[in-house]
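The following record pairs a protein chain with its ligand, magnesium ion.
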Amino acid sequence: MIPKSHPRFVSLMTRELIIEGVKNGITSTQGLIAQGRGEAFDYLIGEKSTDGALAAEKIAAAELLLARRPVISVNGNAAALVPGELIRLGEIVNAPLEVNLFHRTQERVDKIIKHLHSLGAQNLYTKSDALITGIEHERAKVDSDGIFSADVVLVPLEDGDRCKALVDMGKTVIAIDLNPLSRTAQGATVTIVDNIIRAVPNISKFAGELKGLRKEELQEVVMGYDNKKTLSLAIDEVKTNLDSFFANRYISPQ
Ligand code: ATP
Ligand code: MG
C-alpha cells in the first residue's frame, strides 16, 4: 500500500493502475514504457494542467460538442487509467467510445470492451470492418460507423503515424499527449499537453459549461485556435521549470 502522505502518491497510484491493466490483459507491456515516457514529461511540465493545456481542453470540449459524428478512441493505457471518466465524457458530448489499439489483438479488444461495459458504457462501436487509409495491418482496423466515418476523434495517447493518417483523412484530431515534441503532438489538430488523468475530467468540466451554447457561439470559441501556439506554450513551460530548477537547486550548466 502506498501511503496517501507520499509526495508522489498520484504518480505512484497511476503506475499501479497501469500495472493492474497489464495484469488484467487490458494494457500492453509496451504501454508500461509509454507511461514512463509520459511521466518524464509530466515531471517537466510540473505535474499540473498548465494554462495552455486548459485552453486546449476547452477547445477540445467545444470541438466535440460541435461535431456531427464525434468518437472517443480508447487504447489500453486509457482503459486502465480513466475508463469511467471517458464514459462520462462520452455521455456529456454524445460521443460513442471505440477501442482502438496500436498493438492490436482481438482478445485484448474484447477484454477492454467487457471492462467498459462493466463500468456502464452503453455507446460503443465494436466492429472492425474498415481500415484507416494509408496505414498497414492490424493497427489500421476500425469500425466503419465509428472512427472511420467520424469528423472529430479524441485520441488519448495516439501513435504519430496513425494520428497523421486520421488528419490526412480530413478529421479533426484531438490528441492528449504529455510529450509536446512527439509526432502525435505536432500532427494533431488540437494537442492537449497534459496527463490523461487530469485532461479527461477537465474536458468534461468544460463540456458541461459549454453545452448550453448555440452552434455559432461554440464556433466562436474555437475560432482562431492556433495549435502551434499551444505547443510552444508547453515547451516554454518546460524551459521555465528547468530554469527555476537550475536557479534554485543546482549549479547552472556551463
Ligand atoms: P509519436 O509516435 O507520436 O512520435 P512516441 O512513439 O514517442 O510518439 P508512443 O509510444 O507512440 O510515443 O506514445 C506514447 C505517448 O503517450 C508519449 O508521447 C507519452 O508522452 C504519452 N503519454 C504516456 N502516458 C501518458 C499519460 N498518462 N497522459 C498523457 N500522455 C501520456
Ligand atoms: Mg509512436
